[in-house]
Inverse folding.
């Protein structure tokens, strides 16, 4: 019996019972659609968290002056060296660090005309924008180039700009910080309060050298850096430590990385994915039992047909295949319909919550179609075997 | 062509057993037209099912075309049913979702015959029972007699050696019954072996030979019994 004939026969049988076919296709479709929606939500949650980390800078290395001792106290008679711009330049030459940015910070009053507002002022360099994954609403960030250049550019956080300029365009305007004058070159896009550190929306950014003079500092608050390859985090960390130890002739800095946090989050995400997979597989099992139910009803209702097919010389394997084909077609149709429903559901979700990055991962599409196929075959086997075991004489006996 | 030797068919029933067939020995030659008559419950259908390889004797030998088939494996028996045996039932057993044409093509579908040939052979079979104009009708659009003729077309489309009909006219009015019997007898005249279960003595009278069953045992006119005993 040719495959095409087998399929034709199965499709004919399914079309003969439209309501039943529609219901079981709907059952599988709901199962597949929920699998897809759940994985899309899980994937969305994962991406959301990963994006948050990226925003924080998951490749971030933070270098602080001073040694944090995990055991014992402050080193006896040890001299604490400051972090300097020269240290920063040395670190910037390390191959494993993609970008580095020195930071000094102080709270200062920003003045525009007769308005004043007290904000954290960060002295840093152009690299800070990339390292912290900041976006500009307008203008540009601090100009790239030599950190020793003491420019007069200032970039405002979104709220600092709003409160100081009240709807006026800040670009090109002059603001004062103490005695110094700065001209506004850019405004940041809203960022929201950061989990770590202070609120960048409120801050203002000026060239590091200018800030050091203004704040009367000779040392840096910290240096932030981004490793080129996430996997190199540990080497980058120890290289930075070794370099500064050599420069300072003492181990007097602390290097923080966020990989500890990343790994604990990835454990949480793994559990989340497993949970979703579990919920999803329950709905697929339900769909499978639905198919099995439909096929069992079909076998019971079509006893006479099965008896007849046997009388006409259909071999048991052919009858088995015919019923399996029906179950598989049901599941495949359900899978496709579920795919369509799930995809539009996720799209709808995206329209309602544009910020939540819910998306069906490509593997989930393949996996759910394969699963629906397997569900059809798996849950179709038992009813199909019942069909082949029917005694044709009893099956043909009228009721 | 058909040779039964001491065939019993028993069903377990509660503590004891029911004997649907008792020690039946019967020979049917190729091309014969045999009528199987007897009261209801006498074992006619059971005998026909055994002849058609749908059921197995509990005891005894069944040779079909010189081969012991009572103990053949299922796969070979379904091949026999497909290629050598045609069945016609009292209740037609047409698939309601298929047209007459589709129903007639059914055995060829499972026989792995290509589509074009299926069409052609089904058309010829329908023509031979005078149903060509109704080929595209579904069973519920056909009269009883037409349904049974479609069923006959289906039974002969694989060119079987024997056609087994279980009360083929039991559900038909007299006119349709005569039509159907006319079709069956015409096929018999062309060489098809015909075994028809009936309880209509008039129809049985058309057969070359009448086999009587009572209580699962052959009980016909003495000469029939004698001939089967000799065989
Ligand atoms: N599956 C079965 N289980 C038990 N008894 C059966 C079964 N099938 C048939 N019989 C019995 O076998 C006898 C013969 O039945 P059957 O061949 O159908 O008779 P007929 O076709 O002549 O009316 C009856 O007594 C019937 O009750
Ligand atoms: Mg009967």
């Amino acid at each position: 019996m040719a495959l095409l004939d087998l399929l034709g026969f199965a499709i004919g049988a399914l079309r003969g019972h439209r309501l039943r076919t529609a219901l079981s296709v709907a059952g599988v479709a709901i199962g597949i659609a929920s699998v897809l929606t759940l994985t899309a939500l899980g994937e969305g949650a994962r991406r959301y968290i990963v994006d948050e980390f990226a925003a924080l800078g998951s490749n971030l290395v933070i270098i602080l002056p001073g040694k944090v001792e995990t055991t014992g106290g402050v080193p006896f008679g040890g001299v604490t060296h400051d972090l300097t711009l020269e240290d920063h330049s040395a670190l910037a030459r390390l191959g494993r660090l993609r970008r580095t940015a020195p930071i000094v910070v102080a709270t200062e009053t920003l003045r525009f005309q007769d308005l004043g507002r007290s904000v954290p002022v960060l002295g840093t360099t152009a690299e800070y924008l990339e390292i912290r994954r900041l976006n500009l609403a307008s203008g540009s960030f601090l100009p790239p180039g030599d950190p020793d250049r003491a420019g007069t550019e200032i970039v405002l956080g979104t709220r600092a700009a709003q409160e100081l300029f009240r709807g006026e365009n800040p670009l090109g305007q002059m603001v004062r910080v103490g005695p110094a004058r700065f001209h506004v070159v850019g405004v940041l896009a809203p960022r929201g309060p950061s989990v770590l550190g202070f609120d960048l929306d409120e801050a203002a950014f000026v060239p590091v050298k200018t800030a050091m003079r203004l704040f009367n500092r000779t040392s840096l608050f910290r240096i932030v850096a981004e490793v080129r390859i996430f996997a190199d985090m540990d080497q980058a960390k120890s290289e930075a430590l070794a370099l500064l130890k050599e420069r300072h002739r003492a181990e007097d800095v602390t290097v923080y990385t966020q990989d500890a946090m990343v790994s604990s989050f990835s454990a949480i995400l793994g559990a989340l994915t497993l949970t979703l997979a579990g919920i999803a597989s329950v709905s697929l099992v339900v769909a499978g039992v639905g198919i099995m139910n439909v096929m069992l009803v079909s076998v019971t209702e079509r006893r006479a047909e099965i008896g007849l097919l046997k009388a006409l010389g259909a071999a048991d394997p052919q009858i088995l295949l015919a019923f399996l084909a029906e179950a598989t077609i049901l599941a495949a149709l359900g899978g496709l319909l579920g795919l369509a429903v799930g995809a539009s559901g996720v799209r709808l979700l995206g329209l309602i919550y544009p910020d939540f990055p819910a998306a069906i991962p490509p593997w989930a599409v393949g996996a759910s179609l394969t699963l629906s196929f397997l569900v059809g075959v798996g849950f179709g086997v038992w009813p199909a075997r019942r069909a082949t075991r029917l005694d044709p004489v009893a099956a043909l006996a009228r009721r | 062509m058909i040779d039964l030797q001491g065939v019993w068919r028993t069903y377990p029933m509660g503590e004891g057993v029911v004997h649907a067939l008792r020690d039946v020995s019967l020979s049917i030659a190729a091309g014969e037209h045999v009528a199987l008559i007897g009261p209801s419950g006498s074992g006619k259908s059971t005998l026909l099912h055994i002849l058609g390889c749908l059921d197995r004797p509990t005891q005894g030998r069944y040779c079909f075309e010189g081969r012991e088939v009572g103990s053949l494996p299922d796969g070979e028996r379904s091949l026999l049913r497909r290629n050598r045996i045609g069945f016609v039932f009292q209740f037609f057993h047409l698939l309601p979702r298929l047209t007459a044409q589709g129903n007639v093509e059914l055995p060829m579908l499972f026989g792995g015959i290509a589509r074009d040939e299926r069409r052609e052979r089904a058309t010829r079979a329908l023509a031979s029972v005078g149903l060509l104009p109704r080929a595209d009708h579904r069973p519920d659009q056909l009269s009883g007699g037409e349904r049974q003729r479609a069923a006959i077309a289906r039974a002969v489309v694989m060119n079987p050696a024997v056609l087994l009909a279980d009360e083929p006219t039991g559900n038909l009015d007299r006119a349709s019954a005569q039509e159907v019997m006319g079709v069956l007898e015409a096929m018999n005249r062309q060489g098809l072996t015909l075994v028809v279960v009936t309880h209509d003595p008039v129809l049985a009278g058309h057969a070359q030979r009448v086999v009587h069953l009572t209580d699962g045992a052959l009980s016909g006119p003495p000469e029939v019994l004698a001939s089967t005993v000799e065989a």
Remarks:
- The radius of gyration of chain B is 18 Å.
- DSSP finds eight helices and ten strands in chain B.
